[in-house]
Amino acid sequence: LDAGEKANVFRVTAAVLHIGNLEFDEDGQGIAVVKESSKPTLNGIAAMLGLNAADTEKALCYKIISIAGKEEPKGLSVRDASFGRDAWAKAVYSKLFDWIVTRINKCFPFKESQNFIGVLDIAGFEYFQVNSFEQFCIN
């Protein structure tokens, strides 16, 4: 990996770790909003991933529904926004992991090779009250 690729891997990994720190509150109508204390985290995540922070918050707290061909935003509950946050982190991490494996496999000097990097995870994700960084790396 060149220096730029390494920096990108670290940047995306950091963003995934920070995504899990986002917390939601409920507005007066039962719609999830990012807690004020999580706004700096949201801004950091958006910067790391090259996203607009306001658009990112909207994507986390609303879904788009189509009624008679017209698209309307519908607010999510805190529970649904939290599920969406976790799914987003998992998806970004999965894409990063797939990219790393593909990039490593490209390092083999042959067009067709019997050698490749593969990963078998028979345990899956474990759920603990507190997950440590080491557990994140294992999974």
Characterization of this structure:
This protein is of the alpha+beta class. Helices cover about 50% and strands about 15% of the residues. The protein has five helices and four strands, in the order αββααββαα. It has helices at about 5-20, 40-50, 55-60, 80-105, 135-139; strands spanning about 25, 30-35, 60-65, 70-75. The strands form two sheets. A two-stranded antiparallel ribbon has the order 1-2. A two-stranded antiparallel ribbon has the order 3-4. A hairpin with a 2-residue loop joins strand 3 and strand 4 (about 70-75). Helix 1 (about 5-20) packs antiparallel against helix 2 (about 40-50) and helix 1 (about 5-20) runs antiparallel to helix 4 (about 80-105). The relative contact order is 0.12.
How many beta-strand elements? 4
Give the spatial strand order of the biggest sheet.
1-2
- Low-confidence stretches are none
The portion of residues forming beta strands comes to: 5-15%
Mean pLDDT: 85
Radius of gyration: 18 Å
Q: In this structure, how is the largest beta sheet organized?
A: 2 strands, antiparallel
Which structural category fits the helices and strands? alpha+beta
Number of helices: 5
The arrangement of helices and strands along the chain is HEEHHEEHH
Distance between the termini: 22 Å
Quaternary: single chain
Shape: elongated
Percent helix: 40-55%
